[in-house]
Amino acid sequence: MILYLIRHAQSANNALAEKIRAAAGEFDELSYDDYRLNRSPDPTLTETGFKQAEILGNYLQTAQPKHRAGFDDPGGVEPGEFSGNPFGITRLYCSAMLRTLQTARPVAEALRLPPRIWVDIHEHGGMFDNTGENGAAVGYPGLTRAQVVDQFPTCEIPQAVSDEGWWFGAEEDLASCQGRAIRVAAELNRMAVEHNDERIALISHGTFLDQLLKALTGRLPGHEFHYGLYNTSITRLDLTTSIHTGLPFTVIRYTNRVDHLSPDLIT
């Protein structure tokens, strides 16, 4: 099974972090505290982010082969055989957070695939801000089922997104995020056995995708390195089983590609 991991387009929180970092000269403890006090629990995309998402959708619909390598993308078809989905994506998932739903919409329209919410691929921390006493985390429920239906009518919504929302807690710690990444990795490896000929795309979040990549490559728990991913970047993994052990086996084809973005839109 081929797995495409796509980070959402630039959100208002991303832009806020860049603004604070530029003003401070670095992202130190003081500037991080400033960010946490002003961040949104469920930010929208910025104007740049909406542009990135539209370009991403167009790219996934119209991309041409760069060379004849058998394991690159687009691949598996001869020039002229493209039919609006050269990457061959068969299923499209996103988290229940607004920024991934907004990113997924033009992709879904371009590929004519219904976006499916997978609650467990949400960002580290969940739905919270730091407006509590002394900057304590305060949880928010997120979009309700009715709100998703109203704003994203073609989306497939699981029961985990209820009439009250989908997040019921304060701030998720890193250990819990890592455990969630391990669970998602296990489910993806199970899917790879049952659907080995599919190509699945997940539109998710920077920190969670870092943890998921580590989970898929057996590097959790651990803090030795970090996968840095640009907004709307594409990472490809091939999920299969080892010919020697029969256990899950991951091939990393590429990470953090932004071929579709002009330099001024890389964030």
Question: What this model shows, in words?
Answer:
The protein has 267 residues and is of the alpha/beta class. It has one domain (2-10, 46-65, 76-265): 3-Layer(aba) Sandwich (Rossmann fold), CATH 3.40.50. Helices cover 34% and strands 15% of the residues. It has seven helices and eight strands. The strands form two sheets. It has a six-stranded mixed beta sheet with strand order 3-2-6-1-7-8. A hairpin with an 8-residue loop joins strand 4 and strand 5 (138-139). It is globular and about 55 Å long. The relative contact order is 0.19. The mean pLDDT is 91.
Keyword list:
267 residues, alpha/beta, Rossmann fold, six-stranded mixed sheet, two-stranded antiparallel ribbon, 15% strand
What is the CA-CA span between the terminal residues?
29 Å
CATH topology: Rossmann fold
Largest sheet, spatial ordering of strands? 3-2-6-1-7-8
Structural class assignment: alpha/beta
Order of helices and strands: EHHHEHEEEHHEHEE
- Describe the sheet with the most strands: 6 strands, mixed
The CATH class turns out to be Alpha Beta
Count every helix, treating DSSP H or I runs of 4 or more residues as helices.
7
Superfamily at the CATH H level?
A: Phosphoglycerate mutase-like
Query: Helical proportion?
Result: 25-40%
- Tell me, briefly, the overall form: globular
For the CA atoms, what is the radius of gyration?
19 Å
Strand share of the residues?
15-25%
User: In terms of per-residue confidence, which ranges show pLDDT below 50 for 5 or more consecutive residues?
Assistant: none
